[in-house]
C-alpha cells in the first residue's frame, strides 16, 4: 500500500524537524508556513512548498498542524481559505499544537460536519525530541482514527498513547507542561544553591542525575544550566501560554495547583523582564535575580 499524502501546516522549531522525519520515512509531504526560509528548508529536505493552506491540503490524505496556540489553530482551520473548507471529506486532521482542550473539542465537532476526522495530538520532548524522532505523543480522539494515524506517529515519536476522547491529548499535555515547569524551577533553584555553596556544579548535577532527583528535564537541560545557554528549544513565551492553559483548566474542574500557580507567576515574571524568547531553562535567570545576581 502506498503511504498517505501529508500536508504539514506550521514549520517552526518543532514542525520543521518533524516534517523532515516524515520525509525520511518515505512520506510525500507538502508544507505551508508564513516564513519563506522555512519553506525553502522543507523543499531542500525533499518536501514540496505550497503557496497557501488551500493548496497544501487540497490533495492530502492527512493534514498535520503545528502552530503556537489556539488562535493560530482557529485561524488556519476556519474560514474560506482554511483547512476545513479546502480538505477533502475523509481527510484525517491531526493537530499537534498545544492548545486548550475546548479548542480541540470544538475543532473536532466542526470538522465532523465536513466529513473530516480529527485527532488532538500534542507532543513532549522539545526540539531535541523532534529532531531525534523520540517525542511523547498524547492523543485525543476516536480509536479508529488513532489506528489510522499510528504509522505517522511512529515516524515522529516513541511513546504514543490514546488518552481518551477529543481534548484528552491537550489535557494530558497541560499536565505535562505543569510537571516540566515545576521541575525546571526546582532544578534552577538547586543550581543557584549549589553554586553559592561553592560546589562543583557539573559533578553535582551528574550525581543528582543518577539518583531519585534525576529526570528527563535535568538530563536535557543540564548543559543549558552549566553553560548558561538559553537558545530556545522551547520558549518561555510558549510555556507561559501553556501555564495559562493548565491553570484555567484546573480551575474549571476544581483542581488546586498551589505549586503550579507559583511557578506560573515566575514564568510570567521572567517573560515580563524580556526573557520570553529564551528557552524555558532560563527560569535559572529568574532565580539568580531573586538571589541577588545581575543578569
TrEMBL record:
Pfam family, one: NAD_binding_2
UniProt key word Iron-sulfur: no
Organism: Streptomyces corchorusii
Domain 3-hydroxyisobutyrate dehydrogenase-like NAD-binding: 167-286
GO BP terms, alphabetized: glyoxylate metabolic process
Gene Ontology molecular function: 2-hydroxy-3-oxopropionate reductase activity; NAD binding; NADP binding
Keyword terms of this UniProt record: NAD, Oxidoreductase
Catalytic residues (UniProt): 173
NCBIfam families assigned: tartro_sem_red
InterPro entries in the cross-refs: 6-PGluconate_DH-like_C_sf, 6PGD_dom2, 6PGDH_NADP-bd, HIBADH-like_NADP-bd, HIBADH-related, NAD(P)-bd_dom_sf, Tartro_sem_red
Family: Belongs to the HIBADH-related family.
Domain 6-phosphogluconate dehydrogenase NADP-binding: 5-164
Coiled-coil residue windows: none
Source species, domain of life: Bacteria
Name of the protein in its database record: 2-hydroxy-3-oxopropionate reductase
Highest classification ranks of the organism: Bacteria, Bacillati, Actinomycetota, Actinomycetes, Kitasatosporales
Gene3D superfamilies: N-(1-d-carboxylethyl)-l-norvaline Dehydrogenase, domain 2, NAD(P)-binding Rossmann-like Domain
